[in-house]
Amino acid sequence: MRMSKLFVQTLREFPNDAEAISHKLLVRAGYIKKLTSGIYSYLPLMQRVLAKISQIIREEMNSAGAQELLMPFVQPSEVWQKSGRWEVYGKELARFSDRHGNQMCLAPTHEEVITSVVSGTFTSYKQLPINLYQIQTKFRDEIRPRFGLLRGREFIMKDAYSFHTSQESLDKEYQNMAAAYKRIFERCGLETKMVQSDSGAIGGNVSHEFMVLTSTQTGENDVFYCENCDYSANSNHAVSNLLKVQTDGAKYGYDKEQKLDTPNVKTIDELAKFLNITPDCILKSVLYIADSKPVLVMIRGDKEVEETKLLNAVNAIEIRPATSDEAYEYLGCEVGYLSFLNVDKNKVKIIFDKSAQGMKNFVIGANEPHKHIVGYNFAQTPDFVDVSLVKEGELCPYCNKPLKVTRGIEVGNIFQLGTKYSKPMNATYTDENGEDKPFIMGCYGIGVTRTAAAAIERYHDDFGIVWPKEIAPYHVDVVPVNTEDEEQMQVALEIYNKLLNMGVEVVIDDRADRAGVKFKDSELIGFPYRITVGKTIKEGLVEFKCRKTGNVEKLTMDEAVEKCKTLLLS
Predict the structure, then answer these.
(1) CA dihedral in degrees (97, 102, 107, 108; nearest 10)?
(2) Closest residue by Cα to residue 165 from 432, 495, 445
(3) For the segment 390-402, what is each residue's pLDDT rounded down to a tens digit?
(4) Are the C-beta atoms of 465 and 525 separated by less than 8 Å?
(5) Contacts of 378 (CB under 8 A, 6+ apart)
(6) Residue 204 pLDDT grade (very low, low, confident, very high; cuts 50, 70, 90)
(7) What residues does 414 pair with on adjacent strands?
(8) What CATH number has the domain spanning 249-385?
(9) Which of 196, 439, 467, 517 shows its CA 20 to 30 Å from the CA of 113?
(10) pTM across the whole model
(11) CA 204 to CA 441: how far, in whole Å?
């Protein structure tokens, strides 16, 4: 490909509306162009990257025994109503009516459709298990699209679905897919960590995410992991053994229950300072609204609520912090002095986080303005639930060693769905005894566009993208310094043609621009290797540069060609 013919326009500056480095670089390097919020055109360079990722996925999925198909992007409401998700999925599901008044939606996922495809087609246990996958555009109407391809509204995804007659069969395929995913991401040049996760709107009892660990703050989740054992989990699923702290208020002289005036003391830090205690001796109250109903969380003062855990604990679809007005409405008191005391449990659901377990003589709000109660103890032990956010340094639940935390970007996920979709949709097979049984299902997703963006988040520098060679749009950039110099152009074209004939994916920068412009574009776009043909050609030498290491060598033309062959075709 000649750069003079390539449909690409690099920019001197980053776009103003971009936050993530992958978004900034993809726009500036001419890979994508925004159409509207969260929706992008994939330009030729980007399409080549996505095609390579997709091909790697196809090869590994086929090798793992899965079969490719393609399902409709537009789905009728009927299949979603059968599964029960039409009402509960939320506003991310883009719904519309066709000209006949039929309710439809743009596919954010395909559990319902694949269940209807297999149901009635494979009806015998002898035909199972089966694993079917597709690579297709999806649409989720995100409330706040951001970070470019990392959280857009339209995206490309590989989604696979398996159907089984037993849990043992599903377990086996789950491990098969996990192994395939590891190979896929390794071939894409990405190191991933498989972490326990929440299954979210997809559902199911067991789920894991494949996370690319990043050095940037764009990572959407904290990943907690143990260096001593294999435990790792997304923050919304992570658990820990709490560190031993001072949770007995008697150590500070508060061994008797009494109500104290605490004027204008509203925050945990202010209260700890006012009473001369540590935050872990305080049982704080946090009010949420879950599906329009109030939920009061009682949690130790040094801990924070993990909202996904809370969402699951109360079996809600949506959850948000309550406003000050709602605190008055449901608890009759302003924020800062709330507690569970004298609360009507028929109107307000109360959740006690596990961090409150073992607390003695602690401090709570009095549910009266400017008052707290010290030396409080539970009259009877409540049921404790884990709804707290794990902190770095807390102990691994398996080996009791300190947990570490890093940022991560989800690029893949796997779920054990069980009969979540087959039962309500009456999707059954006939077992060996002639009885109808619901399919036991698994599903397995990879974000194709997210994988490309995550690679940039992981591999970039001050000059641009540093693609893993496996998914780079082109491998070699041949740059004649002066296109008016016949010898330079002749040698550059000879190198270009030799590489082309060998099957190397190569571009030649035949533009009549200054060498500095070409070099900057080459590094911005992220070609793994650059061969520069300049004045040293009179000595029979060209310059060979590795984008990843920055290492530069002076080689003969034949040596440069042979090096490309060794690096790319061996």
Answers:
(1) 70
(2) 432
(3) 999 999 999 999 9
(4) yes
(5) none
(6) low
(7) 208, 444
(8) 3.90.960.10
(9) 196
(10) 0.86
(11) 9
